[in-house]
Amino acid sequence: MREFKDLKIGDLIIKRPIFQGGMGVRVSASSLASAVSYEGGLGIIAAVGLGEECGNEQRDYKMRSRAELTNIIRATRKLTQNPFGVNIMCVLTNYDELVEAAQAEAVDVIISGAGLPLRLPSLVKNKHTKLIPIVSSARAAQIICSTWARRYKRLPDAIIVEGPLAGGHLGYSMAELSDEKNFNLDKILTEVLAVAHAFENDSTRIPVIAAGGVFDGKDIARLISLGASGVQMASRFVCTHECDVSLKYKEAYLAAKKEDIVVIQSPVGLPGRVILNEFVKRISQGERMDFGCEYQCLYTCDAKKVNYCIAKALLNASRGEMDKGFAMCGSNAYRINKIVSVKELILELVTETEACLNLPRL
Predict the structure, then answer these.
(1) In this model, does residue 300 exceed pLDDT 60?
(2) 37 contacts 11 by C-beta, under 8 angstroms
(3) Shared domain check, 199 and 105
(4) DSSP assignment letter at 88
(5) Structural domain for 311, as ranges
(6) pLDDT computed for residue 291 by the predictor
(7) Are 169 and 268 in contact (CB under 8 A)?
(8) 82: closest CA among 128, 34, 118, 31?
(9) Separation CA 231–CA 222 (nearest Å)
(10) Residue 1: pLDDT over 70
(11) Confidence class of residue 362 from pLDDT cuts 50, 70 and 90?
(12) How far apart are CA 249 and CA 139, in angstroms?
């Protein structure tokens, strides 16, 4: 029988094997990440979009982003002594600077996805920080493990496998998202586990963390039973008191119906799952929102071809200006019906998981 137990990532121990997914543009910052880590999970700061509003600073976007990430890491550390991480997207034009900032602050974990983080080990010199890529397929896991082993003589400290029911940007095509038989988390998890096990030896273990559509203890228990060492969840943490985002953003979750959860094409070049509103309807119909590309934040975004700026849309939403942006979410966001504390949520998840695994409560 599988156990819901401490997650060991090398010498790092996570008391509750629940990662709070990184949610960009100030959704998961110091308040949420510290609260999750304080309760024994792994809180995760999202590094994307931190340079958009930093007072009247005249420094360029990259410098502002790095400085703000440093500030948020330090603020988080003041609120918890437990491990926490930073999520840094590969498609960011200031990827190197953000990785350098995270390692300079000796964060416990750097998580990297939205592309293959093949160069990540070359950017992190300290041995303290654990490196965890996000993958959406066994092939991606194979490429990362073999490349890191060949170039840097190291392996990922863990792997997050994100299924097609996840929120935000998705590592799947529109056709793959509609093919539930061949593209579902349980199947992909099993395939990624096989890759991880093939690279393991007596001294090296690669825990695999399952993500994408994980909603309750029943889901967690199923994934643990399949071999996952833990789970990553994002949407459930939006509707917590500690989440850094505006109350209006949280209320968009509470008001959402199942049919309001839709997938759109993002300027990032990937599909993205969001909550339908008037802004989403307008951009989906091709309406061009008046914007200038102030940030040049994404390698994959061509400002001349896209009809809106996703950085501005997400920043507006995080402030509660939902008529000028949208909330990203997972496929089960419509099931959330109240705002709770992080402590209450984690207790609920742990209790449900242990009951489903038929274990005595700790």
Answers:
(1) yes
(2) no
(3) yes
(4) -
(5) 248-324
(6) 65
(7) yes
(8) 34
(9) 11
(10) no
(11) very low
(12) 36
Looking at this protein, which amino acid is placed at residue 89? M
Query: What's residue 78's pLDDT?
Result: 97
Q: Where are the alpha helices (DSSP H) in the chain?
A: 30-38, 61-79, 95-104, 120-123, 138-152, 174-177, 185-199, 217-226, 235-238, 247-255, 278-284, 310-319, 342-356
Distance between CA atoms of 229 and 103, rounded to whole angstroms?
A: 25
- CATH value at residue 232: 3.20.20.70
Measured distance CA(190)–CA(232) in Å, rounded: 16
Biggest alpha carbon–alpha carbon distance for the chain: 58
Residues 6, 12, 18, 22, Cα dihedral to 10° = 180
Are both 159 and 39 inside the same structural domain?
Answer: yes
In the chain, % of residues over pLDDT 90: 75
pLDDT tens digits, 192-247: 999 999 999 888 999 999 999 999 999 999 999 999 999 999 999 999 999 999 99
CA nearest to 273, candidates 94, 23, 46: 23
DSSP class of residue 335 equals G
Q: What residues contact 304, with CB distance under 8 A and at least 6 apart?
A: none
Per-residue pLDDT at 359: 61
Those residues whose C-beta lies under 8 Å from the C-beta of residue 285, and which sit 6 or more positions away, are: none
Residue 197 CA neighbour count, 13 Å, CB half: 9
Are 167 and 263 in contact by the 8 Å Cβ rule? The answer is: no
Q: Are residue 214 and residue 279 in the same domain, yes or no?
A: no
Q: Which residue reads 């309001």 in tokens? A: 260
> What is the strand order of the sheet 130-135 is part of?
18-20, 230-233, 208-211, 159-162, 130-135, 109-112, 84-87, 43-46
The tokens describing 192, both together, are 């990624």
